[in-house]
Batch of 2 targets.
Target 1
Amino acid sequence: MSAEIQRRLPPWFKVRFPGGDNYVKLKRLVRQEKLHTICEEARCPNMGECWEYGTATFLILGDVCTRACAYCAVTSGRPHGLDLGEPERVAGAVHTLGLRHAVVTSVNRDDLPDGGAAVFASTIRRIRSRAPGCAVEVLIPDFAGSREALRTVVDAAPDVLNHNIESVARLFPRVRPKGSYQRSVELLAQVKEWEPEMVTKSGIILGMGETKDEVLETMFDVREAGCDVLTIGQYLKPSPKHIAIDRFYHPDEFAELKRQGLAMGFRHVESGPLVRSSYHAHEHVATPPGERERTLVG
């Protein structure tokens, strides 16, 4: 695909320009509390819509990642130190915003013995303390395969545990050179083995050279690991140094993948060009009949 084609996005990629009262309020709060959001660090195309709606995905453990995945815009390098006050500030922001479902993710911190698992657990518990009615969703890294680190997060009992597979097995070494396809699948399976009732979630981004059969195989692998919720979106190249866009998927193709995912047994599939892990997160987990009403945002 030529650079010219990559610059000319299809018409279905129109997004809301950032602005509005809620956007300004949330941006001010993030700056005031010295917090990071994956919305900004990953240059999410939905930031204007989500922030105006009053939602954001908090990024903990700093804003420098120890890995350099071929699709990701987050700064990579050597992180400095650990901010142990971060969980309390995130919890305070959740309380101030009045959220009833908070989404928390992180950079990879392979420099830490537990990969940052203890900070995840602390953040979950602080949110529960400051905002008792708030459900907590975490989007975690693979912790370099550490079962002990994963157990630390699971024991903090998040309402939703998300770990994105991101790409197909063949492309994984190029797309996520410090990760492992099998490790990611096994992480999702391990969570279900420990806590069968915990909602698990994963995501795939398309347009990096995968085939349709490979996408379906990845969906099957994730579902076989017991994953409940799946997100599927279009890859957008964040800079010239990142992996090229192989092609743009049409909305009809995303709709077909959603149909096939539901047929595989996923309880919810969010599939579309602009879909990201926490886009419309309030629609990803249905409230069972008879439970209290929850507004899920993230």
Note: The CA atoms of residues 15 and 170 lie 32 Å apart.
Target 2
Amino acid sequence: MAAAPTIMLRDDAALRVFDTGQGRLPIVFQHGLGGDAAQVAQNFPDGPSRRRLTVECRAQGGSGAGSRRPFSIEMFADDVLAAADAAGLDRFVAGGISMGAAIALRLAARHPDRVAGLVLVRPAWAFEAAPQNMRPYIDVAELIRRLPPDEARGAFASSATAARFRRQAPDNLASLLGFFERENATVFAEVMQAIAADGPGISRAAAGVLAIPTLVIGCGIDLVHPLVTARELAETIPDAIFTEVTPKAIDKDRHFAEIRAAIGGFLDRNFNNQDQS
């Protein structure tokens, strides 16, 4: 990762852009909802042969929210494409985690001339907006916007949804509870509510004609990123490779190591570190 991010102005939002600035293979790789560039670095196999660009989306990481509304996956994808333009990346591999995967899918389908390959890690969306697995984000957002922080957190922690996550997906629950502690919780609640009700805006038919190397990574013990969603994407996108990794709830270190290995192997096999620009 670059020693320090640059700042890109989009509307009146100051967005942090991280660019490793090295390597012949350009990759644009995005974080998940509420994540940041550090989350990307944990999942992506950075190295001297790969140049990675990551934008911290509005109201996430160190990026400002700006005044433009509503937040949407389309907005975030447009911001990412603008950053790629500014960096001189004409053609690149697009990838991301969860929300970042939705952004990457949108970029690949809407800008096929720009995207040479696709990496979808723990996708939360396939083709429909507002999937049921994203409903807990809307619940959390509504509580944050309606109640004082401690009351909001307590109300969610004692809910039936939290009880189900505690039993079936404790790592997801930890993430959801963490949203109540954010310094920008109120504005981030707007982001959560809008993005959870959104989708990539890409039809099954559009995904079914993607003609680029694609890797889809999924794991179990995850109610927000269902394994069935990852499999659905892998079965729809022609010749996509599907890889299942160890769930974070079982072994976080192994989970991230397997993701990095899967992505690194995919990039080496399909691009051989060639310049895509």
Note: The domain at 6-129+199-271 is CATH 3.40.50.1820 (Rossmann fold).
